[in-house]
What does this fold into?
Amino acid sequence: MSRSPATGRRPILKMLGWLTGALVAIPLDRLLVSAIRPAAAQTFPIQLKGTHMTHDSSAEVDPYRLPRHVVPTRYELRLEPDLAKATFQGTERIALQIAQPTHTIVLNAVDLTIAQAAIHEGLGRQEQTATVDLEPDLQRCRLTFDPIIPPGEWWLSLSFGGILNDKLRGFYRSTYKDPRGVSHTIAATQFEATDARRAFPCWDEPDFKAVFSTTLVVDRNVTALSNSSVLSKTAQGDKTVVRFADTMKMSTYLVAFVVGPLEGSAPTLIGATSLRLWAVPGKQSLMSFGQDIAAASLRFFESYYGIPYPGDKLDLIALPDFASGAMENLGAITFRETALLVDQHRGTHGELERVADVVAHENAHMWFGDLVTMSWWNGLWLNEAFATFMEMLAVDAWKPEWKRWDTFSVSRAAAFAVDGLHSTRPIEFPVRAPKDAEAMFDVLTYEKGASVLRMLEQYIGPAVFRDGVRDYLKTHAYGNADTKDLWISLGKAASQPVPELMDGWIFQEGYPLVSAELADNGELTLTQQRFTYLPSSASQAKGLQPSWHVPVQIRLRAGAMSGTRRVLLVDRSTRVTVPSETESLVVNEGGHGFFRVRYGPSLFARLLDGGLNHLAAIERFNVLNDAWATTVAGLFPLSDYLALTGRFTSERDKNVWAVMIDSFSFLNRIIETSDRPALETFVRHRLGPAVSEIGWTPHADENDLTRQLRSELVGALGRLGNDSSAQTKAEELYGQSRREADSVDPNLVPALVSILAFTGDAARYEEFTERFKTAATPQEERRYLFALTAFRHPSLLEQTLAKTLNGEIRVQDAPFIVSAVMGNVYGRHLGWNFVKANWDLMDRQFPKQGLRRLCGGITGLATPELEEDVRTFFSSRHIDLGGRTLEQYLEQLRIVVTFRQTQSAALPGYLQAAWK
Ligand code: BES
Ligand code: ZN
It folds into this structure.
């Protein structure tokens, strides 16, 4: 079940749902792809300079950028949240360097009331008060002084106040009920990308780095955490005044405050760094796994980067309400509970891997992001792609048996899926307004970015790559950097120019399909062309055909001449001579290249006949994934793809199976209802033998990956295959696991729950609702919550939808639930009608990114009628989801519906032919 949105193995993950890569789980935020469409005639490479306004002219050119003649160097913040009233009061003193005489100081502030602003040259010196004008549209505050302020060093003092909102951004309120049903409140922050300005007036751009000295005034007996260690705690009336040490010089988006009833784990010392986890009371037993990977990854990064951890302590804090998965505030990383707290013995492999991934990712950011920060949001990939890449390295080093890089194929496939759209964007992309910055947190920044880094690392060699990274971090520590700075450091280490190789991957959208043809004379021709699912329009086709510098590694099976050939494909086409003994060959050996491969008929036949056994898991993944993508793109016959899956029935890699299962659920979305039994029979033929062989219970010496594979196979057999004996068995085992938890492998439980939801009635629905409310772990809670989207009866799915608006489901989860109902073929009409009917209410209740998350679900509305209705709805309401998000969802939907229109009539025949 792990791959259904309802029950996905990774928290807050969702499937693209329209294509294999697609069906793979990736964090939903990343699907919120987008950004402004590049100018029509834009040629590559896009100039970095143009996207990052020069400082002196920025005020005139770009109203979203602050003028640079006033620069903050230090903030002395004092904040007093009132948890009961959900408000906060604050004062701050900001040390400024003023470079030229000025009447005005412009800084960021939004949804704050500013009571007072004054400037003075030092304590006890005469103050000059300012007139304060708020500019809500630009999220700025303009202070005007008369007379003019001469250049020099100044202190700016401000007092301000605001509300602790329930939108999970800025300074916000998270609530939870203790086991006795008593409600408690936590005040917490989420500032990235541009929401520090909601908590205190500030220069809220990543390259205005400053030192922060924070004081929190809080009720006695509550925990107060911030970025650095506590200097002092003093009683003041019924309050405690908590002073924190100075931070390093850092960006505003990394500042954090958390105040509330939290309990910490016992600290682990990593060198001089004290490392602790925090959560609401009663969750200590779920901390050990997170603490282990936090310690291991911190050690790993200190050694890889060759630089000590830059903070003075490290707190990892689980919050009951959290917008994304986790946030890398220096020294005070915040998480949603599923991403940090897990029962080491009862979590599934996927759930444990998720915690390891997120913790390692955020720790990686302490250097990549916090110590060295991108200059502006157009370069977000320098933060996020790197943290994603480093997360893989650290988890792989910690648990090599998890084969993390094999599973990274799933992430790469997700990037391929979005980057194969005409509405994709380059990794680095212009950003102006805050919503453009938000739109950058997508699969292209993270998964494509990490993929191209992996490709480069493998090309220049891991040790050379690491040396380049070390140089980059040392050179820019406590400062900011751009992509070109990274190329300089990597180029130094590699002794070769990097921009030629890499700029195409970063500044140009899309990726190549490399076709390989072998001629009788032993000449292998490699040709590159851009891969898209839909054909190019006439105007696109007329434009310049893009090309890339593609590092192609080919492995030949040719008797004594066997081995690897490395080719840098620069032109549209190139020729490689291969030995006449060549029996088969694989293009993209190791699978690290960010390109798809299409083999000519004879090469493909040789690869399948004998060659397949010689492929690594990642290579088999790519063969199948590319075959499926080219099928969806109309370049490979569907009947051939279905026959091809028959070659993989003895496959035992969970990720390769995931490609297959996901392609079957894609077909399930487009098949006519009356033909569905044919698909079910086909699925049973493909999956049945593997399930019989692997069995329902693990062998004593079985590894985690096989346990996870069993769960994937069984879940798909019970749902997609509608296999009655699997359904009976699932019911039996589920009952057994309820009676005696440890008698069933935890990895199997998600599959059992998903099958029972699929076959479930009202009584089962009640039972699962109760389990959701009384779950013992965040993972269990999430599992039953998403199970509520996987039933088939409309009346039950309607109850689930209602819970997203009546407070029963947290707003951090609600958009995903609505989206998951739309992704359920039995719920898609209902789900869509619910969206249309409640759009305005959801817009008010859900967090800022909520509607965008939810709209990812429209890609499941795979009928021509629904597509038509979706288009009408969005255009008549003039809905803009930010960047190119909506365009991308609509293009994905177009692809699925096109496929349905061209293939669904013939599909039952193909299915029968393929299993016979
Ligand atoms: N910096 C992000 C958090 C974030 C996401 C801030 C979106 C603003 C908008 C953090 O480092 C991150 O990437 N979190 C991921 C989890 C991670 C393991 C990929 C997330 O929240 O999905
Ligand atoms: Zn990140």
Notes: The mean pLDDT is 92. The chain is about 40% helix and 20% strand.
